[in-house]
UniProtKB/TrEMBL annotation, chain A:
Pfam families: Fer2, Fer2_2. Signal peptide: none annotated. It comes from the Bacteria. InterPro entries: 2Fe-2S-bd, 2Fe-2S-bd_dom_sf, 2Fe-2S_ferredoxin-like_sf, 2Fe-2S_ferredoxin-type, 2Fe2S_fd_BS, Beta-grasp_dom_sf, Diverse_Oxidoreductases. Keywords: 2Fe-2S, Iron, Iron-sulfur, Metal-binding, Oxidoreductase. This is Isoquinoline 1-oxidoreductase, alpha subunit. Residues 2-79 form the 2Fe-2S ferredoxin-type domain. The keyword Repeat does not apply. The keyword Iron applies. It comes from Pseudarcicella hirudinis. GO terms for molecular function: 2 iron, 2 sulfur cluster binding; metal ion binding; oxidoreductase activity.
UniProtKB/TrEMBL annotation, chain B:
Residues 211-297 form the Aldehyde oxidase/xanthine dehydrogenase a/b hammerhead domain. Pfam families: MoCoBD_1, MoCoBD_2. This is Isoquinoline 1-oxidoreductase, beta subunit. InterPro entries: Ald_Oxase/Xan_DH_a/b (IPR000674), AldOxase/xan_DH_MoCoBD1 (IPR008274), AldOxase/xan_DH_MoCoBD2 (IPR046867), AldOxase/xan_DH_Mopterin-bd_sf (IPR037165), N-heterocyclic_Hydroxylase (IPR052516), OxRdtase_Mopterin-bd_su_IorB (IPR012368), TAT_signal (IPR006311). PANTHER family: ALDEHYDE DEHYDROGENASE. It comes from the Bacteria. One of its GO terms (molecular function) is oxidoreductase activity. Coiled coil: none annotated.
Amino acid sequence: MAKYSLSINGKKFSIEAEPDTPLLWVIRDYVGLKGTKFGCGMALCGACTVHLDGEPIRSCSTPVSTLKAANRITTIEGISANTDHAIQKAWIEAQVPQCGYCQSGQIMSAVALLKSNPNPNDEDIDAAMSGNICRCGTYPRIRKAIHRAADLIKESGNTTGK
Amino acid sequence: MSFETNHTSRRDFLKISGKTSALLAIGFSLPIAGKAEEIKKLDTSALSMGLELNPYILISDEGKITLFNARPDMGQGTYQSLPLLLAEELEVTLDQVEIRNTDGQGKYGSQLSGGSSSIRTRWMPMRKAGAAVKEMLIKAAAKKWNVSEAECYAEKAKVFHKPSGKSYTYGELVEEASKLEVPKDPKIKDPKDFKLLGKSVPRPEIPSKVNGTAVFGIDSNVPGMLFVSIERSPTILGKVISFDGSEALRIKGVKHVIKTERKMPHRAVEAVAVVADTYWAALKGRRALKIKWDAEGSDKISTDKYFENLRELAKTEGFEYKDDKAGDFAKAFGESAKKVEAQYETPFLAHAPLEPENATVWVQGDKVEIWAPIQGPDGLIPQVAGYLNIKPENVKINVPFMGGAFGRKAYNDYVMEACHVSKQIKAPVKVIWTREDDMTQGPFRPGMLNAFQGAFDAKGALTAYNHKIVGGSIQHQVFGNPLKNVPDDWAGEGSGLGDSPYEIPNRRQSFHLAETDIPIVWWRSVYASTNAFGHESFIDELAHSAGMDPLAFRLNLLADSPRFSRVLQKLAQKSDYHQKLPENKAIGIAIARSFATIAAHAVTVSKQGDGVKIEKVVSVIDCGMTVNPDNIKAQTEGNIVMGITAAIKNGITIKEGKTEQTNFHEYNVLRMTEIPAIEIYVVDNMEAPGGVGEPGLPPIAPALCNAIFNLTGKRIRTLPFDIDKIV
């Protein structure tokens, strides 16, 4: 066991865990944020995607020991206070989720995409989203919602998406 | 077919509603003095007989309205659609109510999400339940105002007196209403007056699914619970000879290493469970286990051998489905001028819902409480009660959202397993399957072989058609149905005479049972997915053999089936079927009826190197009257994606008793980069509602393969195939 100081969604957490514990289980079972999901355990499906300093990572394959107190970790619960990030608004408008299980990961990948590329074309979307599996097959709506979110951000002039 | 036995016909409904007038047990939880006895009366005596329609609607005196959803939601949309049936007739909107899932109690009737049955079976009962409560509330208001009921109407959870404009909220009326007799045959709305049904109303749970707050089974949390990972026999047959948990127990956090079992319906498999205070510790402990397995017999089990057996069985006569209108296939085939034959094979498949199987269970003496993603809580109660040898009323089930299921979560092995562990260690446990567990352990969609013969007479008319369905029987394995000398009555879904209306005077269909130790189960659309691939590919082969356009050939055979013809004609129009395509593109079509809904797809493919690219899928779905057209589109999109995955990505293969695919790198599914343009058209008509969750899947593989034939001349008869290597 070792002690770790983590910053998740702007809050500090002090965690005692085995060094090889994946960030996923730290987030879910130590911190108690359940929006980040377990899907494959091998960074193949993207259900566990969170942001590390703004970049999407697979938390199921990120040992807690690789993180530093200065790292900013963001989970689905941290992207907006009132479910009003442009991506979330677009997701609701397009009625993207079916079962919804993969959507936290999809949304985290999409938020990161729009941050680095506010006006993605279909190829950009393919490249950014192909690591996220949706077994229900919501891909056409995800694509549509990402384009819509890009428009919403442009209209609002607020590039943070909030 | 259907594993749903609660087919509520109109006649059934009248019977039920007569018996259970008290559905209005508007009874609610009214803490009003003097009411308790009456509520009790409503709740038990009137409702205790037979299948009940009952407290789907709760209204408190403060006006809080709760609507119950009796079909667990795995993404198909029942969390909205069933309450919407109530809401339409009750005159409330979903933002005025709280929705709760039912808990498996018998008073809610069948609660199995399966067989695309939820709306088909609940369409009238739920609407009548809503209408009856509305009538009582109106009557109560009229009484309080001392006016005629005819002067009153309900809207947005209030009853209004038209002439005066006065109103009462439902909460203000509930006490008065609960004293009234329940109308036996409440008037339901004319569909032209629907405010909610047939409109694309946004699903109420969507916000919770974009902000991380939706609670899935895996998110269940019970204070003091321990985490469990289980090492099950790596081969299909396997027994624990011995195990050594000492290294596992040395891992920090590991509390117990115990022998357990995975109880499937047809047999139990031995296993060793590692129980720890974190899931990671349980996983590490599992890796440190040393188990000696006796795998005797497993080396003889392989999917290759299974399919070899199917090819032998296809040479037999099998057991014939009886049908008076079937004519005489053997005679017509013998006398025919031209004969065509072909066989099609479809693989075993894993469901691979993105939320792996999991269950949180707390066995306490003769009681158990369960929190798990399950498709059928009502069926789980007697299973668990029997397994733990406790009373059914001591089984409490909590139904969260399922992170996908596709049939897998109507097979309760993972819940029983958690019961077994919790009982032994006397603590609440959460068992989580790894992806590898999910993919390698099954149960799987059974591999199937569909063999066809067709024949034309001298004038070129299709006069004879034979379809042999060869493979495992789900009900034989899961329910122990012996199937002695009879065909499997589920296995014809999507292609039997009831589902395929092609007019061919002499038809035969038979089932050829292949016994197998490989665990099998229903997988989205069950046998319809495998049947339709063969049936609609073979119809296409017959069209080409007759030198006819496949659409015209089908329409010729559908002269007396206007509903099918209209779907095909609409498909032709929307897909621009008759346009001249460039050399490197072609279109193919297929149509299938399953779960009382007709779905047809037109797939456009283009040449891409040695393979083909799926450019576009245009679909027409006729499921009769609709609840939420946008959700019908969503389900059909999903069916297309899952059906293409099943056609061109890995199947499940088993060698020496071991599954060869372990995770998404070996069992690939379609990703964003591979999605064609998809257009869905929902037919608007007044036919009885059909299923939606599955019918879009069966016709996609044959439409794709028919398109590939039109483009390349290569006929694909075995799934899966490599779409990048066609020529």
